[in-house]
């Protein structure tokens, strides 16, 4: 990412620029962080705290995030992710979302992924629990490669 | 067992919630408080007709399952969560454990609410007698209890996380099974509240365990990891026996074991370790998974679909004021 950071500042919203095709949020428990590490793909982590400057996406990306909050669904999306998506340039580049959660939370399992899917009109690509099993990692790895290939084919179609 | 070793925190400072050392303490405290519930709010009496449709064997099984769960919740409320307090890293962590301890007592009491709604006093007393006499149930409580009274605070957290995230599930299976067959649905609603609480408890205690590992030598970390897996195997062997004791009469033991494997993996993940059971043995009956979480089925996996479908999440109200769009 140092190559990205060395680019001249982009003339739109503020925030550290990133060209990663995976952007993720993980709290200090690091569950989502561990899952993303296991993917061995270029990925950018959103800042832990809302008072920090958020990221500026330069390329299309898939967002990976856990679900917060309880029963009602209120507060399901972490504030740090809301701050990132409030930047319209970031919203324009989101192509999909992957949710992390725990089925013990019943109807709110991976709810944050659903919320973003609806608000940003992108598919909720996959759900996994806690830090994901090796099978989750394989499926997301393969799935994302196919997903990006398909999207690029659609774009180059005459 | 040497109960005199269970000690109180030896120094208490006035807790200042305006100076936070670990933000997880506040996050989890708020989560637990927002999740607070009491069994009186669940209309259990609506299950009396459904209860009457169960065979005597099925009723007996259900009562035994719930006395087993009562024992675990009692252990966690009275000893487990309390035993974690003296070794808390922050004063806020101590407060969270008191919340967990109380909620475990609510869980334990809620099984009695189910019993008093559905069963006779004689049946209840017999089920509790069974819980005292069942070797494998007693053994799992004793294994965990011995670590609560032991000297190693990190091993206490391992034992506690395995109880919260693994040992309950041989019991939780049954109300999910009834719910999937449209039976005892109010009871299942109550159990889902307990399942939700246990997830927060296991997550938090497992997180504090991982905080406790920070800065330790590689040898000590390796010792604790080996210990975790050894304890998991020991508990698993016993859980399999216990599962057969309970479920052989209705032919569900193999289905329950898949649920055990699935939850054992989640318990290990809560402690920061990789899943142990391969996917070939964690393929939980979709009806059970769906009774647990309606969003957990394969239909929600975009990648495994044909690729032509464009799955948008279900509509949800987002009332957070922070959204700008």
UniProtKB/TrEMBL annotation, chain A:
Xref: Gene3D superfamilies: 3.40.50.360
InterPro entries per record: Flavoprotein-like_sf, RNR_Ib_NrdI_bac, RNR_NrdI
PANTHER family: PROTEIN NRDI
Function of the protein: Probably involved in ribonucleotide reductase function.
NCBIfam families registered for this protein in UniProt: nrdI (TIGR00333)
Family: Belongs to the NrdI family.
Protein name according to UniProt: Protein NrdI
Organism encoding this protein: Arthrobacter silviterrae
Upper taxonomic lineage: Bacteria, Bacillati, Actinomycetota, Actinomycetes, Micrococcales
From TrEMBL, chain B:
GO MF term list: ribonucleoside-diphosphate reductase activity, thioredoxin disulfide as acceptor
Record carries keyword Metal-binding: yes
Catalytic activity: a 2'-deoxyribonucleoside 5'-diphosphate + [thioredoxin]-disulfide + H2O = a ribonucleoside 5'-diphosphate + [thioredoxin]-dithiol
Keywords: Deoxyribonucleotide synthesis, Iron, Metal-binding, Oxidoreductase
Class of the enzyme per the UniProt entry, highest EC level: oxidoreductase
Cofactor dependence: Fe cation
Cofactor note: Binds 2 iron ions per subunit.
Family annotation (SUPFAM superfamilies): Ferritin-like (SSF47240)
Summary of subunit composition and partner proteins: Tetramer of two alpha and two beta subunits.
Function: Provides the precursors necessary for DNA synthesis. Catalyzes the biosynthesis of deoxyribonucleotides from the corresponding ribonucleotides.
Membership in a protein family: Belongs to the ribonucleoside diphosphate reductase small chain family.
This protein's name: Ribonucleoside-diphosphate reductase subunit beta
Gene name per UniProt: nrdF
């Amino acid at each position: 990412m140092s190559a990205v950071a060395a680019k001249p500042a982009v003339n739109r919203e503020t925030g550290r620029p990133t060209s990663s095709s995976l952007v993720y949020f993980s709290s200090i428990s690091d569950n989502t962080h561990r899952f993303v590490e296991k993917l061995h793909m270029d990925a950018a982590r959103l800042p832990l705290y809302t008072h920090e400057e958020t990221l500026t996406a330069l390329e299309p990306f898939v967002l990976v995030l856990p679900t917060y909050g309880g029963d009602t669904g209120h507060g399901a999306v972490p504030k740090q992710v809301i701050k990132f998506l409030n930047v319209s340039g970031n919203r324009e580049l989101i192509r999909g979302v992957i949710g992390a959660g725990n089925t013990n939370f019943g109807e709110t399992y991976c709810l944050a992924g659903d919320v973003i899917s609806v608000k940003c009109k992108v598919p909720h690509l996959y759900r996994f629990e806690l830090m994901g099993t090796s099978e989750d990692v394989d499926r997301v790895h393969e799935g994302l490669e196919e997903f990006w290939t398909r999207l690029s084919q659609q774009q180059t179609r005459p | 067992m040497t109960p005199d070793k269970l000690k109180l925190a030896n120094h208490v400072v006035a807790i200042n919630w305006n100076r936070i050392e670990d933000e997880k303490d506040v996050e989890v405290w708020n989560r637990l408080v927002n999740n607070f519930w009491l069994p009186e709010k669940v209309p259990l009496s609506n299950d009396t007709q459904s209860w009457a449709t169960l065979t005597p064997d099925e009723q007996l099984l259900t009562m035994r399952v719930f006395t087993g769960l009562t024992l675990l919740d009692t252990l966690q409320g009275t000893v487990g969560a309390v035993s974690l307090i003296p070794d808390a890293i922050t004063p806020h962590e101590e407060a969270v454990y008191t919340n967990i301890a109380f909620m475990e007592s609510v869980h334990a009491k809620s099984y009695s609410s189910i019993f008093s709604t559905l069963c006779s006093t004689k049946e209840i007393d017999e089920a509790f007698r069974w819980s005292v006499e069942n070797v494998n149930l007693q053994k799992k409580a004793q294994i965990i209890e011995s670590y609560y009274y032991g000297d190693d605070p990190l091993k206490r957290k391992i034992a506690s996380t395995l109880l919260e995230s693994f040992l309950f599930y041989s019991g939780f299976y049954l109300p999910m099974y009834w719910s999937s067959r449209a039976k005892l649905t109010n009871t299942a609603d109550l159990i889902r509240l307990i399942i939700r609480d246990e997830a927060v408890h296991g997550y938090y205690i497992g997180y504090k365990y991982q905080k406790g590992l920070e800065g330790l030598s590689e040898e000590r970390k390796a010792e604790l990891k080996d210990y975790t897996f050894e304890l998991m195997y020991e508990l698993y062997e016993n859980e399999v026996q216990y599962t057969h004791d309970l479920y052989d009469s209705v032919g569900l033991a193999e289905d329950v074991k898949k649920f055990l494997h699935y939850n054992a993996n989640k318990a290990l993940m809560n402690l920061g370790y990789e899943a142990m059971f391969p996917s070939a043995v964690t393929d939980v009956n979709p009806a059970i998974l769906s009774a647990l979480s309606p969003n957990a089925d394969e239909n929600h996996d975009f990648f495994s679909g044909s690729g032509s479908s464009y799955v948008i999440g279900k509509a949800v109200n987002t009332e957070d004021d922070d959204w700008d769009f």
